[in-house]
Design brief:
Blueprint (H helix, E strand, L loop, with lengths): L1 E4 L12 E4 L11 H7 L1 H10 L6 H6 L5 H5 L1 H9 L4 E2 L11 E2 L6 E7 L1 H9 L5 H10 L15 H19 L2 E3 L9 E10 L5 E9 L2 E5 L5 E17 L9 E12 L20 H11 L3
Parallel strand pairs: 5-11
Antiparallel strand pairs: 1-2, 3-4, 5-6, 7-8, 8-9, 9-10, 10-11
Helix pairs in contact: 1-2, 2-6, 7-8, 8-9
């Protein structure tokens, strides 16, 4: 409603920008990443559906993720199970009927969401969804004498399933990056760590190139990907101190910007031609899981 010019040109060479009086407090966005992805079906629906993956403890046991130590340490096993989901609402108080990104931690982030067509292309090249992985598991379980499933996979199939799950989760996590980077009137280059890491604890980077009105990315397979369509979508993932009706404060929050991109990002160059390369043989599956097991 009122502005004051405090720039150097108006103040004898000493400036401190512009000051504006406004008629009410500015409210940051209260929409979560989950809500924005759910609502924007035209641009985000295929990626959103992939992010619904939520492997149960029993499914992960069948896939061979439970170590001997985890069998006797329930807290360790619970922490392991949580790694195999993107969105979470267990043991926390997110906004009503919402979920938050499990690995966000009071910081600023960017989510790069491939177009629906590119997610479909990834699936055609062998990327398996949660439902497809579970169906594969059910179809390859060892059967008893009466033809009933024992809930146990043969060793070779277990290695493949383990690689399928590891690949899906890392594929998704590679699209979630540190730093909020906007399509803006600027020129800059930034190396941003993703949520995907290797067995040495290195978070795999995405290289971001900003020019006025555009962003281009270079992924870990040296592919060029561009921001298109829906971009600069603002979100805030936050946890409350109690269920929504009784909450009095925000316990933690992260600010996020979402962009549509014209291709999916690849964290491993060996997957360029076909995602099933990761589990083509039991030996390759074992090596892939060893290199990219979730942290």
């Amino acid at each position: 409603i009122e502005g004051y010019n405090m720039t150097a040109e108006q103040n004898g060479g000493y400036g401190n920008g512009m000051t504006y009086l406004i008629n009410r407090p500015m409210q940051p966005t209260t929409k979560t990443v989950y809500a924005i992805m759910r609502e924007n079906q035209d641009n985000f629906s295929e990626f959103y559906q992939l992010c619904q993956a939520n492997f149960s403890a029993d499914q992960l046991i069948a896939a061979g993720f439970q170590t001997e130590e985890m069998k006797t340490d329930n807290d360790l096993w619970k922490a392991e199970v949580k790694k195999y989901r993107i969105f979470n609402d267990e043991g926390i108080y997110p906004p009503f009927n919402e979920k938050v990104v499990r690995f966000f931690n009071n910081y600023r982030y960017t989510v790069y969401i491939p177009t629906n067509e590119k997610i479909q292309e990834a699936r055609q090249r062998g990327l398996m969804t949660y439902d497809e992985i579970i169906e594969y598991m059910e179809n390859h379980m060892i059967q008893d004498e009466e033809g009933q499933s024992t809930g146990v996979l043969p060793e070779a199939e277990q290695l493949k399933v383990k690689a399928m799950i590891t690949l899906l989760m890392n594929f998704l996590k590679y699209h979630f990056c540190d730093q909020s980077v906007f399509v803006d009137n600027c020129t800059d280059e930034v190396q941003c760590q993703s949520a995907c890491s290797d067995n040495e604890g290195n978070y795999i980077s995405v290289y971001v190139h900003q020019t006025p009105g555009a962003i281009s990315l270079t992924d870990n397979s040296n592919r060029a990907v561009n921001v298109v369509g829906a971009y600069n979508q603002l979100a805030r993932d936050y946890e409350l101190d109690a269920p929504t009706d009784n909450a009095r404060a925000i316990r933690s929050s992260s600010y996020v910007v979402l962009h549509n991109v014209n291709n999916y990002l690849l964290f491993d160059g060996s997957l360029k031609d076909n995602f099933s390369k990761a589990w083509e043989t039991p030996a390759e599956a074992k090596a892939f899981v060893k290199k990219f097991r979730l942290k």
